[in-house]
Amino acid sequence: MTNTVSHIKSYSSILIISGLLLVALFGTAGLQAQDTTAGKTVTQKKFQRLMTKKNTVLLDVRTTEEYKSGHIPGSLQIDVLNAADFKKQVASFDKNKKYLLYCRSGKRSSSAKVLMEEMGFTKLYDLDGGFSKWTGKKELK
Predict the structure, then answer these.
(1) What is the pTM of this model?
(2) Cα(first)–Cα(last) distance of the chain, in Å?
(3) C-beta of residue 59 within 8 angstroms of C-beta of residue 76
(4) Of 15, 60, 89, 100, which has the fewest CB atoms closer than 10 Å, so is most exposed?
């Protein structure tokens, strides 16, 4: 009898632990499926490929001073830290185009993606690591 009780306790523990692991696994999968981050963060290689596509706008969301110290050629500069001005300027953009966003490290461009998604933009791509990791052509202004 004692042997049977200890087996039941052992199996119960295994079932409880297995159940908790399954809940954790499915809970994590559910959170990933509900990712609300706007657009996609892409590698430099993919970012450069997207730059060559039609209907693509390259957007530098850093400050004017940062932009003047070096930027990706062909980019437009709108400072996302000035959110009201950023939204005002972006409101006139064509929502059917692709927008390639970058800042210094990726934090501000991620914020810009969210703002633009809230405004109805759906084709948003953010440069992983930002301009600080950019190894392509640079332009001074």
Answers:
(1) 0.73
(2) 85
(3) yes
(4) 15
